[in-house]
Design a protein that fits this description.
heterodimer, A: 181 residues, 0% strand
Chain lengths: 181, 101
């Protein structure tokens, strides 16, 4: 029996999986960046079904709004746009296929071995119930940030500052050297 | 195996896709996309197994910090890639094989 929540869940999982599959075999880097957008958006949708609305919003804001724009900048700065050929070839196709499908079949076997109905995740599969129960996700994460995870929180802010300075330092123009191109 | 267990196979699939991308692409930006996929697969599992009823959702906290680290990693990696492109005029990983001179 499929109700509306389950159908929406399957749709978001399908967006994620199909996007990932297409991402694995596309050669155009621009397409790949936008397919990554689809995958990240699908994952954000899945987060909502798993009771993590705050994470879904931060996923969209940070990944889709930030990281993807940075990645597109990287693509456009490292490929001459006059050539208009932002393509890569696929190398090591056979070893890559063997390794990734082998890894995935190992995961499938493991997931098949585990009896999730006995475990912690039992009521998590009951998605309708899970969605009903969650109401103050952001509040719980905020409390966690300022109590148990306070040190990590502060360290993350310091890390972001260091990265900001470091990235600006790495991409600066050396003193006295003019741009060659 | 219950058929509703397909939920647990989404993140292994994304992980394997990321590994495939890292292996089969020579372009540094594409390898970076693969690494992003791997990080997101780990995140998805963290969120899936996090407690969602009461108290601090530890899995979601872990995923949140992974997002922060991923943002930092992408910024630094792209700065390095731009530097490499300025010096070698390519971002093909196989061509970048000199340490000095």
């Amino acid at each position: 029996m499929l109700d509306l929540i389950e159908i929406a869940h399957i749709v978001f999982a399908g967006i994620t999986l199909l996007g990932g599959l297409a991402l694995a075999f596309t050669k155009n880097i621009i397409y790949a960046s936008f397919l990554l957008f689809a995958v990240l958006f699908g994952i954000a949708g899945l987060y909502v079904f798993y009771g993590a609305e705050f994470l879904a919003m931060s996923q969209i804001i940070v990944y889709v709004g930030g990281i993807l724009v940075i990645l597109l900048f990287g693509v456009m700065l490292t490929h001459k746009l006059r050539d208009l050929k932002p393509k890569t070839e696929i190398v090591n196709l056979i070893p890559g296929l063997i390794l990734s499908t082998g890894l995935f079949s190992i995961f499938v076997v493991f997931v098949g071995e585990i009896d999730f109905s006995q475990s912690l995740a039992k009521d998590k599969l009951d998605l309708g119930k899970a969605v009903e129960h969650v109401g103050n996700n952001a509040e719980r994460i905020g409390v966690g940030n300022l109590t148990e995870y306070l040190l990590l929180f502060e360290l993350a802010s310091v890390l972001l500052l260091v990265v900001l300075i470091g990235a600006a330092y790495l991409t600066r123009k050396p003193k006295g050297e003019e741009a060659t191109s | 195996m219950n058929w509703s267990d397909w939920v647990f196979l989404v993140s292994p699939f994304l992980f394997c896709t990321g590994v495939f991308l890292v292996i089969t692409r020579r372009n540094a930006v594409m390898a970076l996309l693969g690494i992003e996929l791997i990080l997101n697969a780990a995140n998805l599992n963290f969120v899936l197994f996090s407690n969602r009823e009461t108290g601090i959702p530890h899995g979601q906290m872990a995923a949140l910090f992974v997002i922060v680290i991923a943002a930092a990693e992408v910024a630094v990696a792209l700065a390095i890639i731009l530097n490499v492109y300025k010096r070698f005029k390519t971002v093909n990983i196989d061509d970048i094989d000199t340490l000095k001179n």
